[in-house]
Specification:
299 residues, globular, alpha/beta
Length: 299
């Protein structure tokens, strides 16, 4: 982001504010920068706003989902921005609060909503969806090999008692997902929990809607930086960046037509990963994949 914002009165949108760590790093390093922080989680917005209070009007909180980026900027009367940052997935705060139900490591109610004020919980989905719908969620959003078995066990179990806690779900997963003997493996619920969280918060569809808005919001020379944490997110990001970085002139045309040149230049070769030093300091960066691009003037 630095080349797009250093030494100028610039604006960056932090589409996934969380506790405000990225926003604080940006505001502290660039004295003329304004950061618009978007988050759907009211608790996160409150904590981040307190953390960033010293920066006054240079920090602007916005209670929204990041696929509402266009509306947020219109409401703030901002025509374009010099940077957009997305740090996708669940935040550290949400993971670390057992009552939010995001983690399989602690017994808690199966909530998983990023905005606890609206929408269905994970427990609601487990109670209401049929076998086929549950299996599709686990297969498509969690890439779970045993999606059908897990869904069948959930349907059979809920006939006896509602599934409302992570302890109950973990027992089902241990019965449904075979573990390779003598081989250390991750928790059997990892993929299913990911799938439920994505379904509860409509994460992939939100990202698909947000990417074109983020690209459109950039001024020429502005930069978009996206960190994703699994292949489903990264695939959506990669596709959107490649589409914008490709001329829309039909391939059979001998010259590029006016107004069809690429609107982005991709800055990263493939994805960038955390270094060993960063992983030692922050193990949660293990699965992070970073992609970045710069806005071009369309000719």
């Amino acid at each position: 982001l630095r080349p797009a914002i250093e030494g100028k009165k610039a604006t960056v949108v932090d589409c996934t504010l969380g506790l405000g760590g990225h926003a604080e790093a940006l505001l502290s390093q660039f004295p003329d920068l304004t950061v618009v922080g978007i988050d759907r989680d009211d608790a996160a917005l409150e904590i981040a706003s307190e953390r960033l209070r010293e920066y006054g009007s240079r920090f602007v909180p916005a209670a929204a989902i990041y696929d509402e980026l266009t509306e947020v900027l219109a409401m703030l009367e901002i025509q374009s921005v010099e940077g957009v940052l997305m740090d996708l997935g669940v935040s550290s705060m949400q993971l670390d609060q057992p009552e939010r139900g995001f983690s399989y490591a602690q017994d808690a109610p199966l909530d998983m909503r990023m905005n606890q004020g609206s929408g269905k919980t994970a427990a609601d989905l487990l109670a209401s969806l049929d076998h086929g719908q549950l299996a599709r969620i686990f297969r498509d959003y969690g890439e779970e090999r045993f999606a059908s078995q897990v869904a069948r066990e959930i349907v059979n179990t809920r006939d006896e008692a509602p599934i409302v806690s992570s302890a109950q779900l973990n027992e089902i997963l241990e019965r449904s997902i075979p573990q390779a003997p003598g081989k250390a493996s991750s928790h059997p619920g990892k993929r299913v929990y990911q799938a439920l969280r994505i379904a509860v918060n409509d994460e992939l569809q939100t990202l698909e809607r947000a990417m074109p808005q983020a690209i459109d919001a950039l001024s020429v020379g502005g930069r978009l930086v996206v960190m994703s944490y699994h292949s489903l997110e990264d695939g959506i990001v990669k596709k959107a960046l490649q589409l914008a970085a490709t001329s829309s002139t039909p391939i059979e045309m001998p010259v590029e037509l006016p107004g069809t040149s690429p609107s982005l230049k991709i800055l990263t070769k493939g994805v960038e990963r955390a270094t060993e030093i960063e992983l030692h300091q922050n193990p949660r960066a293990q699965s992070a994949r970073l992609r970045a691009a710069e806005k071009l003037e369309v000719r």
